Amino acid sequence: MNKSSSLRVENPARTGAAARLANLVVSALPWMIIAGLLYAGLFIKPKAVGGSVTPPALERRDRVYGIAHAADGALLAAASNGKILAIGADRKVARAATPGSLSLQDIAAFDGAHAVAVGNDNVILVTEDGGKHWRQVDNVPRSQVANKLNRVRAGANGVAVAVGEMGALLRSQDYGKTWQRLREEEDVAWNDVAILDGGVLVVVGEFGKILRSSDGGKSWEKEQPPVQSSLMGLAFRDTANGVAVGLEGVVLTTGDGGRSWTSVKVPAHEHLLDVAWNADRNEWFATGAMGRWVSGTSGADGLQWKAGVLGEHALSWHTRVLAAGRGYWLAGADLGSWDGRQWTPLASN
């Protein structure tokens, strides 16, 4: 039987066309994949699975360098990375929108509406609505060498004074909107300033340097300090009596408005970085490194000084102390309150 009639004979032309089509598809496949990826990247938006995670206003990594009273028992705090925090009377924390990310070194409030914050690279921020909105000040006097503002103090009638690196000593008379230099640039860092009645200004800085002006900064006198250690913080309880603190546990007192100073021996050697007067407790209170605090109260033999630490496990540094009733708020490596017996860190929320 002849079976050749049952055999299928392929058409050579058809076989060649199929091969060419297959080769075309294979060669085009990488471009099709690339086109698909481009389309997905441009036009297909991924949908979030679950809720987005919002970081807390106060994070563990934050360093809070300044703190001030605000309206209705609230506080304002200046922190690293340009953060300004509003702390309610209920201890809840909210972050205000700020126009930059430069670390802020200090903050001061004039009243319930006006406040000013200063920091790295001569940044100055102001608010006119109690801290809800902040704007950066333009045309702040600068040095060609270094620019960092360490401290700002607010006085009456919109007057503020800021101090910092390279002899920065700046004054504003319009709630921080504009600033003028009070002294020429010099190779010294000023760390704190007190604004007293009658146009008196007292400034302290590194290497124990102290300046005093009795005419609002038009002229200056260099006072003779009894120490060479850098002075970091300064406070007055009236126009005559004040305390300055500094590195290596230095404590100085004055009873004549900053003209002369006396060194006080205190039972502490850690760096002291800030001091405040608490009228409710009738005491001076200083804070600094390693959770150290020092307090001075009036006694029969004058000021009696004692020292302690916040707690066995509360050994952080604090650059600012703020009297609040019979207690204090401390700001630095962490933020919290001290009632004289117990340290209560502010929780992130």
TrEMBL record:
Entry coiled-coil feature ranges: none
UniProt keywords (A-Z) are: Membrane, Photosynthesis, Photosystem II, Transmembrane, Transmembrane helix
Q: Where is the signal peptide?
A: none
Against Pfam families, the record matches this protein to: PSII_BNR
For this protein, the parts annotated as crossing the membrane are 21-44
- Where the record annotates domain Photosynthesis system II assembly factor Ycf48/Hcf136-like, the positions are 103-221
Q: Which domain of life is it from?
A: Bacteria
What is the name listed in the Swiss-Prot or TrEMBL entry for this protein?
YCF48-related protein
Q: What is the lineage of its organism?
A: Bacteria, Pseudomonadati, Pseudomonadota, Betaproteobacteria, Burkholderiales
